[in-house]
Amino acid sequence: MAETVALLGGGVIGGGWAARFVLNGFDVRLYDPDPDAERTVAAMVDNARRAYRRLTLAPLPAEGALTLVATPEEAVQDVSFVQESAPEREELKRGLLAAASRAAVPDAIFASSTSGLLPTRLQAAMTHPERFTVAHPFNPVYLLPLVELCGGERTVPETIERAADVYRGLGMRPLIVRTEVDAFVADRLLEALWREALWLVAEDVATVAEVDDAIRFGAGLRWASMGSFLSYRIAGGEAGMRHFMEQFGPALELPWTKLTAVPELTDELLDKIVAQSDAQAGGRSIGELERVRDDCLVSVIHGLRSHDQGAGAVLAAYERALFAAAPAAPAAEDDAPLRLHTAVVQPEWIDYNGHAHESRYLQMFGDATDALLRHVGVDLDGGSSYFTVETHLSHVGEARAGERLGVTTQLLGHDEKRLHVFHSLHRSDDGALVATAEQMLLHVDTRAGRASAAAPELLERIARITGVHAALPRPERAGRAVSLAPRARR
């Protein structure tokens, strides 16, 4: 049975939490008095599901169930974790947390998504306030890994530790804020940038689009991998941070910024920002913009993952945990083509021709190869693996949205360094052949960065399967070459 968590509030942040918990296998009991909450949260879960299909190929657990309840007391009944995401009004949050804490079991963790309210004040009226912490996430909650943890005066260290473990299990990166401070760490930085951005627009120095361009084409790209201080250290050259501070530190005294002053939000300024923002959106709906945002975030995270940096390193650790936690598949039989990978053709796989894009066939075969390597005992995160050095794709049929596909795999041969593989992609409902892929894999010592002989125990396992597969008919398309010459009759 899936573990149940309680969510108090289902707005943009609460809905994001619902998506992250549900997709990580938790049942969610959600309290939100808004009559439209069920629809808006369900839409956010759909967005997250779409993003996760792009984010990771690791086996997510079976989705949890989302249930709306009528009261906060009903939500927290017998759960061990409560995430509060009510509107950012202190009295509202205090009252909600106090009422819910009276109905919860004594050791249930309570976490607030507040972006700036002090935890000591929020926990003041709670029963067992020692189990309360701020857990401030970032939108979209289901994709961005950062969550700031900050306890109040009555919070015990164990609460922070337990909460951090929960968030790590969700694929997040807890940042523990040791000193209780307004707006914590990340929002203090964001507010400084936001104030300066408002001044630039208010004084007609730049439009909202130009401000955004200054960030996304410049420092924003650098921040994604290195943050601020490490970027500045590099800017100091070989002499490092000390040289940077000596060279650029005096500029901090120049009247370049207005960090402590805020432009008056007059109707004129608001109208200007709204008009420019509408123009920048170019007629795209919020839903369309959210999908663009999510797709771009996934691409950035994937790029960072290949270098094991920032959010990409968090994703890699999350995927390792997902693979480790996945239930063991039934042992595949070796005396027939292996059946190690299936997938459903997703709507976003479809191109202008109405069927799956060519890259998705390669993705399916790549996933099947990874499944094969796991099957024969290769540790994909270890010091050695097989790399694909040649692939020959043949397209036989078409795959359309919603169809379930399966890959069969036959080992055609091997030596101490190479592995010859043939995959066939079939439509599951009628068994029709859709595509084939013949691949040559090369064993690589990933630490040394060169080809190497595979370990004896791995070669023994591969030899056994290859020997069994030698009795199977050789695939018709094996060994084909791309050529305009007429094929010889058989």
Structure description:
The protein is α/β, with parallel strands linked by helices and 490 residues long. It has three domains: 183 residues, 3-Layer(aba) Sandwich (Rossmann fold); 119 residues, N-(1-d-carboxylethyl)-l-norvaline Dehydrogenase, domain 2, CATH 1.10.1040; 137 residues, Thiol Ester Dehydrase, Chain A (Roll). The chain contains 15 helices and 14 strands. The strands form two sheets. Strands 3-2-1-4-5-6-7-8 form an eight-stranded mixed sheet, sandwiched between helices. Strand 12 and strand 13 form a beta hairpin. The N and C termini lie far apart (57 Å). The mean pLDDT is 90.
Could you name the key traits of this structure?
Thiol Ester Dehydrase, Chain A; 14 strands; 490 residues; six-stranded antiparallel sheet; 15 helices; single chain; N-(1-d-carboxylethyl)-l-norvaline Dehydrogenase, domain 2; alpha/beta; Rossmann fold; globular; eight-stranded mixed sheet; 3 domains; 41% helix
